[in-house]
Amino acid sequence: MKQFLSFVRKEFIHILRDPRSLLILLVMPQIMVLLPGYVIKNEVKDIRIAVLDQSRDIYTEQLTQRLYANDYFIGKEEVKTEEEAAELFKKGEIDLVVVFGPEFANRIMHSQDASIQILSDGSEPNQASVRVAYAQQVVAGFQKELAQQMAQAGKGGQPFNIRVNSRMLYNPQQRSEVNFVPGVVGMVILLICCMMTSIAIVREREMGTMEILLASPLPSIDIVLAKLVPYMIISLIDMATILCLSYFVMHVPMAGSLLIYVITAVIYIFTSLMLGLLISTVVDTQLAAMLISLLLIVPTIYLSGMVFAIESMPVAAQVVSNIVPAKWFISASRKIMVEGVGMEYVTTEMRALAIEGLVFMLLAWRFFKTRLT
Amino acid sequence: MTDEIVIKAEGLTKRFGDFTATDHVTFEVRKGEIFGFLGANGAGKTTAMRMLCGLSQPSDGKATVAGYDVATEYEQVKRHIGYMSQKFSLYDDLTVEENLVLFGGIYGMPRKKVQDKITELLQELGFESERKTMVKSLPLGWKQKLAFSLAIFHEPSIVFLDEPTGGVDPVTRRQFWELIYRAADNGITVFVTTHYMDEAEYCDRVSIMVDGRIDALGSPMQLKQQFHGNSMYDVFYALARTAKRGD
Amino acid sequence: MKALPYLLTKEYKQMFRNWLLPVVFILLPIAMMNVVPRIATQEVKNLTIAVIDCDHSTLSSRLIQKLQASEFFNLYATCPNYQTAYDLLQEGRVDFIVTIENEFEPNLYRTGGADIMVTVNAVNGMKGGLGNSYLTQIVMQYAQELSYESGAIMRRPVTVEPRYLFNAALDYKPYMIPALMAMTLILLVGFLPALNVVGEKERGTIEQINVTPVSRIEFILSKMIPYWTVGLFIVGFSMLLAWKIHGVTPAGSIGLVFLFNIVYVFTISSLGLTISNYSDNMRQAAIVMFFFIVIFILTSGLISPIASMPHWAQEATRLNPLRYIITAMREIYLKGSTFHQLLSQFIPLCIYGALASTWAVTSFQKNN
């Protein structure tokens, strides 16, 4: 045990001697949590809007005023032709152009076929449809007022009104950080435990120092385990700081039990470490270790449900996502942190993580053995 | 051997923070000489040599190599020297020939001349069969001979060798020194660090560094007389005992 | 520049002798172009709904039909009470619960107003929010329709026709694919150079180079040029994949795509080498480069639009080279914007490239 601890100490010294890397390992996770909280938003605002008014009557003027006065819109100079609008769209200087056809007021009052065309930059589909929805809301408000004016003038009754009373569960302000924090923890642990440990072990082999260590009286398995301990501790520190930051500063809830969360995280750390170990046993150079880790981390970003919802993926991708350890961890932590469910709701995730960890461990052990002999 | 001075160091000093690795070192090396640079590990040999090769800036003092100031004209210095570092530093994933072509090209040697020289050199070394072998699969002794040949491949006027025979067997060491003699015969000045005292005997002149300073300088014969020893080992031991820096 | 051809030969040989590198140059673009666009979609479609209809009237069932007819919603179940529906929501089977009040139809006719209650699972905030606004819109339209039918209002309402330019099908793929190309490039052409020079430091081979009279520019060029060729191969290969697999091709000029990418690849390979020059070992270089890549990707507009960021953050993203390439690539792919229209992206990217490459050369120390 004493010998084992001295090996652990040696590993720590390696890490502490490189303050630049340590700083990044400790600070990067915090930035990855803060960015979504304060920077990465999906809200639609500052919509740059212009009108193309071929009618120029009282109603188009009223509507234009309404649109420009709306908080979501930033009114830009009126455009004269569709070509001019197209040029602005291509330069990326405008998001929405509202086109009033000729004789707008006349058509409302008489022929009843008035129409408004809304040109929206459809590049980003969600933003595009939300922008249109905002413009439609303004138009709807205008119509309601028009109908009320008519009703007062005795030309018809009040329009029907169906009120939609929405209640947002779990994440009432629709904050993206609530969605993001569990994902960031999953990502950071994978990065540290998988990429860093595999590099650390392969480095010893590349530099030739591994042979010296293996020649020591300590069992070879202990030498490898000693390399894992510091990274496990760094991940735990990162997890703790991320949780503190998100809870106290960003008010991300911890609705469920912290203990259950920590247990899940520890299982996940174990799985990630074993994956790192497995990588280190199959490659020979640090470059290869990094490339393989990279090839694992990139799909993880996409397949884990961290950014993109798993339910909306194609079935094949959903099936594949089941072998991504981060998926299980992120799913479990969302349930615990946001929904506050009990242990019985996350047993599937825990079991999946543990099984994967054991499989990685067995494989790593096998490859390690064959390497030694 | 002529009296032309090709390396001249005056009070050459390198400090890292408050640690003085090389402490006001002064010496001269003549053209065609084999100059042994001795000292225990950590005595400051490699640091001094790195300054002379233009890899590292002196903190104090002055040195010229082939007539160029190492502090300011280090790129000029590099045109006239060859260097073999302590750690094997050829490209493992290139073949013997590819390494030679690469460095020949870097020094601007014509392609034809490079090819002829490679053939000649490999013949001399008895390496013809290894021309297309990856360097990583060569045995250590061969690697070191190759590294030396590469250091003098572009026919520099001075070659710096940093512990060139570390870790090789006595037979190979012997062969290695034959290569050094041959280079010296061709008029190349050889500046070599070592801690094998039998090798020190092969040098024309040696200097012995202790704690960053040169404590003795002269031909092996002179030094043995001066320190009343039978061999260079005795001389070295007498001096090394005064060292305060550990390994 | 006499030494450059020799140094380049060496770099290319080393690159292709490492079997893993060429494999990654092929595999990563395939993964990024084939798989990721299918996943990296934020399309809010097929949201599942549970309905509790307490009214069971003609008007309430017409509302349910309206919701069902929308491409955004799928009716998962009609529930007898709120608790059953709530259980479904907790199990993650439905995203929305729509409760139609008891006297829905009578209230509408009597008072002109009625209520529905919507419960949204908003763990995924964007999905919840967007779905909610789609739902509100459907209900509003329905109300207008009813008003006109019943004669409550005399005039047919003004119709609003949205027209989505450049991406009429509102498909996420042509939006994500150009951005994913930029991401693939930084992962390879940014990350690998960061490991290169420091790798030579670690193996000690750099000493043998430093002691030669080779110039810094030549050495750094010999490190960069191989990555430029790899980068341009990846651009071409990715464009081919995007076309063959998803049918996504640039609306604008292919030459312009390459022009932008040449400057971009030049910039990121310089950044990678600069980091490599400052690093002591490969692990450190990897961590530092990874740090920058993560920050660059998160703030580039790849996953969330720059326009949605707070103003100070929008200004800060001007320091991010990915911002310019991703914007430009999307404009070329979707809108067919011309060089002239994209000058505001091209100029900053060029300045960035010039600074980064100067830094890469000056930070390489042959003598310290």
Task: Fill in the keyword field for this structure.
A: 373 residues, alpha/beta, 4-stranded mixed β-sheet, B: 247 residues, 4-stranded antiparallel β-sheet, 9 helices
What does this molecule look like?
The complex is a heterotrimer of chains A (373), B (247) and C (368). Chain A is α/β, with parallel strands linked by helices and 373 residues long. Chain A has helices at 2-16, 19-38, 58-69, 82-91, 104-111, 125-152, 176-207, 209-214, 220-249, 258-282, 286-303, 315-321, 325-339, 347-372; strands at residues 47-53, 73-75, 96-100, 115-121, 161-169. In chain A, strands 2-1-3-4 form a four-stranded mixed β-sheet, with helices on both faces. In chain A, β1 (47-53), α3 (58-69) and β2 (73-75) form a beta-alpha-beta unit. Chain B is 36% helix and 26% strand. Chain B contains nine helices and ten strands. Chain B has a six-stranded mixed β-sheet with strand order 6-7-8-3-9-10, sandwiched between helices. In chain C, 65% of the residues lie in helices and 9% in strands. A four-stranded mixed β-sheet of chain C has the order 2-1-3-4, sandwiched between helices. The radius of gyration of chain C is 28 Å and the shape is elongated. β4 of chain A pairs parallel with β5 of chain C.
